[in-house]
Design goal:
By secondary structure, the protein is α+β, with helices and mostly antiparallel strands. 35% of the residues lie in helices and 20% in strands. Strands 1, 2, 3, 4, 5 and 6 form a six-stranded antiparallel β-sheet that branches. A two-stranded antiparallel sheet has the order 7-8. A hairpin with a 5-residue loop joins β2 and β3. α4 crosses α5. The longest helix is centred in the first third of the chain and has 30 residues. InterPro entries: EF-hand-dom_pair, EF_Hand_1_Ca_BS, EF_hand_dom, PPIase_dom_sf, PPIase_FKBP, PPIase_FKBP_dom. It catalyses: [protein]-peptidylproline (omega=180) = [protein]-peptidylproline (omega=0). One of its GO terms (molecular function) is peptidyl-prolyl cis-trans isomerase activity.
């Protein structure tokens, strides 16, 4: 009798240990998938917070968390110009994109990104495998992105409530011109192809309001 209860107690303890190990595993994998955001500077007036689909203009530096080695600096890379990119659509690495949510023009953030949301198990030269990275970002401008309802109406030149590839491309070219960004024709073709691949759900070669208006589901 006593032996039996000892045994079941042992089973109970073992079960508990397994459970604890399991919970630790879950917690560990959850916490390793989280980014950390530190606001280094917040301007007094926030004119327009970054939302999914907005066009952001930013400078950023990338560092390895383990020893602080800098692996990227937009101020010294290529022409030293800040980058333009669409927020929340996978144009930049996922953890960085997540870390820019609701950021204000003029704001500075330090965003710590685990490998799973950065360069992964393999890394990407010069970032080694499984590296946690830190980005220091200065957001300069937030513009209404090419994927808002207003932009849809602007793009839909013949007002038929659908967008053709040509309409989208013309709009992108106009935006680039306004922002003084020089791009090759192939760049616009690539962007348009990408936009249609992501949004043309019924694959009819045009985008409906519903297919294009990403603000209706505004999560990352
Ligand atoms: Ca149209
Ligand atoms: Ca369609």
């Amino acid at each position: 009798m006593c032996k039996m209860s000892e045994r079941s107690f042992l089973h109970f303890i073992l079960g508990l240990q397994v459970l604890v190990a399991f919970l630790n595993l879950i917690c560990a994998s959850e916490s390793s998938d989280e980014i950390k955001i530190e606001v280094l500077f917040l301007p007094e007036n926030c004119t327009q917070k970054a939302r999914k689909g907005d066009l952001l203009h930013a400078h950023y530096d990338g560092f390895l968390a383990k020893d602080g080695t800098q692996f990227y600096c937009s101020r010294s890379a290529k022409d030293g110009q800040p980058h333009w990119f669409v927020h929340g659509v996978g144009e930049i690495i996922k953890g960085l994109d997540m870390g820019l949510k609701d950021m204000c023009p003029g704001e500075k953030r330090k965003i710590t990104v685990p490998p799973s949301l950065a360069f992964g198990e393999k890394g990407k030269d010069p970032v080694p495998p499984n590296a946690t990275v830190i980005f220091e970002v200065e957001l300069l401008h937030v513009r209404r992105g090419p994927r808002s309802m207003e932009a849809f109406k602007e793009m839909d030149r013949n007002n038929d409530r659908t967008l053709t590839k040509e309409e989208v491309k013309e709009h992108l070219k106009m935006e680039a011109e306004k922002l003084n960004v020089q791009k090759e024709e192939s760049y616009f073709n690539d962007v348009v192809t990408d936009v249609f691949r992501r949004h043309d759900q019924d694959a009819d070669g045009t985008l409906s309001v519903k297919e294009y208006n990403v603000y209706e589901h505004d999560e990352l």
